From TrEMBL:
It comes from Algibacter agarivorans. This is MBL fold metallo-hydrolase. Residues 275-362, 376-460 form the Rhodanese domain. Keywords: Metal-binding. It holds the Pfam family Lactamase_B.
Length: 473
């Protein structure tokens, strides 16, 4: 028996490959299927099942493409949802034979109503591992407010009550030695305070996970789970529907996105399709010259999350600017979250645009020390675009918290004639923020290189730990 965790950091997502005696199963696979097919081929195994813990909101699964390419059976937990593809509706307690092992479905509603965990039973009949999806994370549990974005009557209170029962009745009675393999880790928006660890024993989680406290009442649980939840990224409901209704073949999506476009063809596509240009280069390289109205969302960061958060509409036409050789990587990461309408990339990158004599824009980006010098001469308005929780932990005195997560609300809160100095933690999110607002007509935003890390190093700014931030939302 083999169990492999395939962890994708940019989405903080764990998929799993299980194999026994020539048969394999994949749990919660990401959109691109080749990696799973290659694993099975290398081991001379056949993928028999694709197990889904629920209809995902934060990424598009490869369940449909993987089943078509391998003949695997798609399995979901109990649900009445009508889909655009064939699948098996598993029953609570149903066991699926895989080689010499068995996988038992445990229906655990709460995160969503169809949410299920999969219990691995080894060759000797011993319960060994639980693939817990978004029901149980390491040091956290799945948020119970996402399903109501799709089905209004499923209130977060109702779902939280279901989650309490699922944890107490289905998971906590399992043996302490069982390894928990969750669907996500720290950085995912599917929970609120997940650990950086990507697996743990159930016994240890009973000791450390706030949601598994043995003497917790259902009312206490509901209150704890719902406290501190922030609105999820806007693209989540669309991804749920894509996973339910179906999607384009991944190969055709990537092929279209990898279409090389000359400068003239790129410009034509901009106009004809009202496309958004996503420039995926490093923030400081972008600042020195970019195509007007481009969004800078760097590929070397939480790219998919910020595309989905700032653009939201998965059907939006997109054009790609990337460092040569990274176009396919960008295309795959867009497809992971259902942005399938990438029309191609600028052949030759930004250098081709420059050589063609086309217009370039720039963003002023200054050092923390430079800002300190300006501050000595005149008042400065500082925008902190980190999340409220980060801001609450520590922030520059009098800085205004305006999280990138809710950038669409910023337009009516800012004065286009006023100069603002923008920072995040390290300089990635601030450039995303400034580039998007610049495309909307805000010309007086200045980026701070290195973010709050650099600002603190200067020792020229007062750091506040005031717990009630001034937030423009």
């Amino acid at each position: 028996m083999k169990v492999e965790q395939i962890y994708t950091s940019c989405l903080a997502q764990g998929a799993y490959y299980i194999e026994s005696h020539g048969e394999a199963a994949v749990i919660d696979p990401l959109r691109e299927v080749d990696q799973y097919i290659a694993m099975a081929k290398d081991r001379k195994a056949k993928i028999k099942y694709v197990f889904e813990t629920h209809f995902h909101a934060d990424f598009v699964s490869s369940h449909i493409d993987l089943a078509k390419k391998t003949g695997a059976i798609i399995v979901y937990g109990p649900t009445t949802v009508k889909t655009g593809f064939d699948f098996v509706v598993g029953e609570d307690g149903q066991e699926f034979k895989l080689g010499n092992v068995k996988i038992r479905l445990l229906h655990t509603p709460g995160h969503t109503m169809e949410s299920s965990c999969y219990l691995l039973i080894d060759e000797t009949g011993k319960e060994t591992a639980l693939f817990s999806g978004d029901t149980l994370f390491i040091d956290d549990v799945g948020r119970p407010d996402l399903a109501q974005k799709v089905i209004a009557e499923l209130t977060q209170e109702k779902l939280a009550a279901h989650l309490f029962d699922s944890l107490r009745n289905k998971i906590m009675p399992l043996p302490d030695h069982i390894i928990i393999y969750p669907g996500h880790g720290a950085g995912s928006a599917c929970g609120k305070k997940m650990s950086d660890e990507t697996s743990d024993t159930l016994g240890h989680q009973k000791e450390t996970n706030y949601a598994l406290r043995a003497d917790m009442t259902k009312e206490e649980f509901i209150d704890d789970i719902l406290t501190g939840l922030t609105p999820p990224p806007g693209y989540f409901p669309q991804n749920v529907l894509i996973n339910i209704q179906g999607y384009q073949n991944i190969d055709s999506v990537i092929k279209k996105a990898k279409t090389p476009l000359t400068v003239n063809a790129f410009e034509k596509a901009m106009l004809e399709h009202c496309a958004i240009i996503i420039d995926t280069r490093d923030a400081q390289a972008f600042a020195k010259g970019f195509i007007p109205d481009s969004y800078n969302i760097g590929i070397d960061g939480s790219f998919a999350n910020w595309v989905g958060t700032t653009i939201v509409n998965t059907k939006q036409a997109i054009l790609i600017v990337a460092d040569p050789g990274r176009e396919e990587e960008v295309a795959k990461r867009l497809a992971r979250i259902g942005f399938d309408n990438a029309l191609g990339f600028l052949k030759g990158g930004i250098d081709a645009w420059k050589k063609a004599g086309k217009e370039l824009e720039m963003i002023t980006s200054i050092t923390a020390n430079h800002l300190a010098t300006i501050k000595q001469k005149e008042p400065v308005a500082i925008l902190d675009v980190r999340r409220a929780s980060e801001y609450n932990s520590e922030h520059i005195l009098n800085a205004i918290n305006m999280p990138l997560d809710y950038i669409k609300n910023s337009i009516k809160k800012l004065d286009k004639e006023k100069t603002y100095y923008v920072h995040c933690r390290s300089g990635y999110r601030s450039m995303v923020f400034v580039s998007i607002l610049k495309s909307m007509g805000f010309k007086n935003l200045i980026d701070i290189k290195g973010g709050i890390i650099a600002l603190k190093k200067t020792k020229k700014f007062n750091i506040s730990e005031y717990k009630e931030p001034t937030t423009l939302l």
